[in-house]
C-alpha cells in the first residue's frame, strides 16, 4: 500500500464504489426486464409513507403505470451501465439518486411504515439512504475513478500530441496504453459479472430480493369461485382460511417418511415462498400463522412486495435462560400483528404444572396492546387453563377426526404425547395423529366463548380438504389454519367458500 500513490488509491476505491452501485442498478433492471409481466403496481399500490397518496395516484392509472414500468426497467439499466462503465457518471449519479429517493419515500423507515423494514426497525437510515448519499458524493466529487469518461479526454489529447513533456514518444505511448487499459477494465468486468449472474440464475432461479419481480400465474386465480369470507379476532378482520407456516418453514409431519422435510425445503425456495404468498393474497387469504423463526422472512417479504398480509407469530418461552419474553419481543420487533403461545409449549407447561408462565406471557403480550392466542394439541391443556382463568383472545386447537388408516388405535393414545417421542410401533404415536380425542375437543370448542382457529385439520395430509374442512367448521371452528403449497391454494379457497355457503350441521354460533 505504501508504494501506491494516494491519488491512485483514491481512484481505485471510487471506481469500486461506483461499479458496485452500478451493478446493483443494472442487475435490478435486467431482472425486471426478463421477468414475465413485471410491474411496479403492487409496490406502489401498497405504499404506507406520508407520500402514499402520490404513489397510489400513479398506481390507479393504467397509462401512468405503463410509463412508470418502462422508466423503472430501462432507467435502472441505463443508470447502471453508466455508473459501471464510468460514462456520464455525474448524470447517471444524479438520476440514480432521484430514483432511489422515490423508492425511499415509498416505504420510509420512520412512521407507520417503519414496521415493514427488511432488517428490523431501522430508523431513517437504511440501504437506500446510504446508497443515495454515495451517489451524491459521486456527483460532487471531481474524481470519478477509472472509466470511459476518463478515457475519452485521453484519446482527444493523444490526437493533439504524441509526446508527453519529459518523455519520449515511446514512453508516452506506453503510458497512454496503460491508462487506456485501466479505464477499459470495466468492460470485461461487466462481462464476467454478467456471465456469473446468468449461470447463477440458471442454477438457482431469479434473485427474489429484487423486490416486485415475482409474478403469479393468473390462470389459477381465474378459477376462484368467489370472495373468501372473513371474520374477526379482536380488532383484526381476517380471512376464514389462514395460511399455515409449516410448509414455508420446512416442518413436515411425515410419519415415517424421513425425506419429506428435505423435499419441503428444496421446493420452497425463497422465490417459491414469495410466489406462494402472493398467490395466497390474490386468492383472498390475508393472514398467515408462522413459527417464530420465520419472522425475518415475513418482514423481508412484506418490505419487498409492499404486502399487507397479517402475521400471527407463534412464541415460546426460553426456559434455558429464564427469559420467557424473548420471543415476544422479537416477534413484535419484526412487525407481527398477533402473537400466539405455541401449541407444544402450552402442552408442556400444563403437563409440567408451570401454567404461571403461560399467564405471564399472555399478560405481557396484552400490555403491548396485541391480541394473544393460546394453542394446544392436547385439549386437556386448554381445559386446565380455562379452569385457572387463563383465557386468551382466541384458541387454536388441532381439530380433525381420526377416521384415516394411519391413526393409531384410540385405546393406545396418551395425553400430551403429541410432539413427544415417536414410536416404531404403528399401534402407538408416531407423528401421525394430532387431535387425539376428537369428541373431547368438539365438546370444549362448543362451549368456548372466544373464537377458535382449527389447525392440523387435514391431519398433516391424511384427510382430503373437503372432508377435513367441513368436519372442523361443522364442529365449531371459526377459522381454519392450513399449510399449503402454491398449487393447492386456489382449490383450498374454493373448498372453503363452498363449505361456508352450505353448512347446515354447524351448531355453535360464530365467534369473530
Folded structure, characterized:
The chain has 512 residues and is an alpha/beta fold. The protein has two domains: 6-146 and 185-210, no CATH class; 218-501, TIM Barrel, CATH 3.20.20.100. The protein is 50% helix and 9% strand. The protein is built from 21 helices and ten strands. It has an eight-stranded parallel barrel, surrounded by six helices. Strands 1-2 form a two-stranded antiparallel ribbon. Helix 14 (295-305) links the parallel strand 4 (287-290) and strand 5 (310-315). The longest helix has 29 residues, at 6-34. The radius of gyration is 29 Å and the shape is elongated. The termini are far apart. The model is unreliable at 114-120, 160-164 and 208-216 (pLDDT under 50).
What is the correct CATH architecture of the largest domain? Alpha-Beta Barrel
What class do helices, strands and sheet pairing give? alpha/beta
Round the Cα radius of gyration to an integer and report it.
Answer: 29 Å
Strand order of the largest sheet: 3-4-5-6-7-8-9-10
How many separate helices? 21
Q: In percent, how helical is the residue content?
A: 40-55%
* Uncertain regions spanning at least 5 consecutive residues: 114-120, 160-164, 208-216
CATH superfamily of the largest domain: NADP-dependent oxidoreductase domain
Q: Estimate the mean pLDDT confidence.
A: 85
CATH class of the largest domain: Alpha Beta
CATH topology of the largest domain: TIM Barrel
* % residues in beta strands: 5-15%
Tell me the count of domains: 2
Distance between the termini: 69 Å
Described by its quaternary structure, the protein is: single chain
Shape descriptor reads: elongated
Please give the number of β-strands: 10
The main sheet comes to: 8 strands, parallel, barrel
